[in-house]
Amino acid sequence: MKDYDYSRIEKKWQAYWEEHQTFKVTEDGSKEKFYVLAEFPYPSGQGLHIGHPRPYTAMDILARKRRLQGYNVLFPFGWDAFGLPTENFAIKNRIHPAKVTADNVASFTKQAKAIGFSFDWSREINTTDPAYYKWTQWIFLQLFKRGLAYKKEMAVNWCTDCKVVLANEEVVNGECERCHGEVVRKVKSQWTLKITEYAQRLLDDLESVDYPERVKASQINWIGRSTGAEVKFAVNTGGEASDDALAVYTTRPDTLFGATYMVIAPEHPYVEKWAGRLSNFGEVVKYRELAAKKSDFERTEIVKEKTGVKLDGVLAVNPVNGAEIPVFISDYVMMSYGTGAIMAVPGHDTRDWEFAKKFNLPIIEVVKGGDVEKEAFTDCDAGVMVNSGFLDGLSVEDAKVKITAWLSEKKLGEPKVNFKLRDWVFSRQRYWGEPIPVVYCEKCGGWVALPESELPLTLPEVESYMPTDNGESPLATLVGFINTVCPVCGSPAKRETDTMPQWAGSSWYYLRYCDPHNDKELISKEKLGYWTGVNSAVSPPVDWYNGGMEHTTLHLLYSRFWHKFLYDIGVVNTKEPYKKRTSHGMILGEDGQKMSKSRGNVINPDDVIRDYGADGLRLYEMFVGDFEKVAPWSTTGIKGCKRFLERVWGLAEILSDGDEYRKELRAAFHKTVKKVGSDIETLKFNTAIAALMSLINEIYSTGSINKAELRTFLILLNPFAPHITEEMFEKAGFGVLNTQSWAGYDEELCKDDETEIAVQINGKVRAKAVVKAGSDKATTLAAAKAALGGLLDGKEIVKEIAVPDKLVNIVAR
RNA sequence: GCCGCUGUGGCGGAACAGGCAGACGCAACAGACUUAAAAUCUGUCGAUAGUAACUAUCGUAUCGGUUCAAGUCCGAUCAGCGGCACCA
Question: pTM of the prediction?
């Protein structure tokens, strides 16, 4: 047998595809379109690791199969190349980020091509390309013009030693990841996008898309819609009534009679406002400084002991009974959620209960059903109202309605829908991002948009991309960049020096693939029209979008938000970008840990391709386990896949003539065609491969394979292992495989003539029986009883259950 | 902490919608071929007990429930993984 020389074969076919532009796609109205997308990668300096190919191989299989089925398949690729890791690498190694990016893209490209993905490389995009980010900036301008982009003061992580704004990820245990300097929260003015204005639509439209339930659930939780009431508490300061009212948002207005104190966030503006009236202001300020060092995450941890400071000199008035109650500041209340103030009901909220116990505050039971001295009773489905005046005896549900109506009537509050979702912080004080195309004009009195004709506003190509020491973007040091004139009034103005987050470029890239070289528009109506369904009803452009679970909240939500905005301004014609979303599990190291350089368990795909071939790599990545779950890499496991490919290669040695499946293999072939086809569509690649392995075992057991059988076998295997199958197809004289059609099957021919069924007595298998397929209940039962022989003698049959073609269970005493 | 997910042989994993648990592959063991090894081929391969091919009992993280029948459904518990808004 001639050896299976995978290296030669793979290079040959990769060159062939490149030369013939086999996978280049044009808008062909005679074919039905299929747009399949795998999240584009971030080209990190470490090169491709073995986890990267998994989603691309999976979507490549889908793309190749759909092409054989006659679809016009758009399967594009590109680079999400702005971002922090590149910038940090650049700073550390003194190489310009643009150069770092170009190098990384080049090595990723080489690796991706060596695996044989059927991308349409003519549509490759890169978010750091000015021709691309021109349109990212354009979208920002449209948001800005419609009031959806605004500046807002907010806390950022500030490293006191490096003097840079840090990402949450760069803060480790309250210290800077790099220099271990102290990290504090510092207030900065940041560009912010009003995603909250789209909260309800982002929630509602989930019903129209095909996402896994767990993905929908995480989007729903992230948006966090709740209904409740906003309630106003009057405030007495310094012993006299004040005009200030403290508004709180609560989902439990029914428990208002149980509110025994209030808590406001340390950043709450009233703290400053009341400064003069607080006898312990010094202590309050100290606490506020302490809280400023903590992240939201640390602050909301329940396990830690509650802390806080009472505001001496301020009392709030419970509107429902006029009781005067103390006001505290505590870090478990966030300024970013609700109104930044809460009414505390220790009897029925776990956090309030812990706080009340610590500070010896009264706990009043207002819903019966638990023991509020032992723990907060939070089950609102059970129990009736007590100690609550006019609400006594009502259910929680009814009490909510009644108290909300009462508050509205007395103008003390109103029903309110609240979202956990916060506006999108869009500023980064960094170099390696899209410049924000606005200028600050003193004369015009604010931020002014650049005219669209001045886009793209390119990143100045300079030596200095190092952070400044005052927390501004590196762009702030570039006098030539900053100083400009106002496009409206012509007077001197200053450019914005913050850049956009990496999320920006990835929020709309799927659209650009449809029309990647258009310099007049973001996307043309014609191209968009084709990819949203020229032959069928208009539906989201991307038919199938696969990506990691780690992107199911932010990236997915942000891009859905931008798409809806583009819909509102008439750029796109669908409300949603992605019709269907799936996600893949990570590939772990051989030790079962996440692959990382520091753990030393990273496997390089180049080595794997050298030793096992690209087809071997692809096959093993798909065979290793359930695509949607994590799976550890195994160097011995991949041997089995290579062995299988060698057995496939060996089929050429036992090839004989024959235009149709032989009788003994007919059912096996029809079944396998059916299974492989449906398994690909449901991402069950591992069982599709197992079915092909079983089939080849059967083929070898007959000692030969005929041409019809080999042809089908190669077509079924082609999406998984495109190189070896093309080579064998050509060698067998069948022509070029990718111009053929996918294999068909006949449902009738999938069935075996006879099936073996299990015969159980009281649920335990006691015998086997062979029956003709599709036999009725009576025949099946008779066969089953015959198979049992004398085992039922002397027993009383209580019940007989027969499942056609599966089993019979006889309940007997 | 909150939200989501996962738990099946020595290992990766199968099991459509409650119907024979362990498909397919890896590793291991035995045999064939070979001077020998590798490769290849054939066979065995959840546990326990007796044993000749066999039979019985147990077995899908733990405890309990529903059902003729539970890896699958329900309740509780334990363990691990992922996300938590400036990593992408």
Answer: 0.91
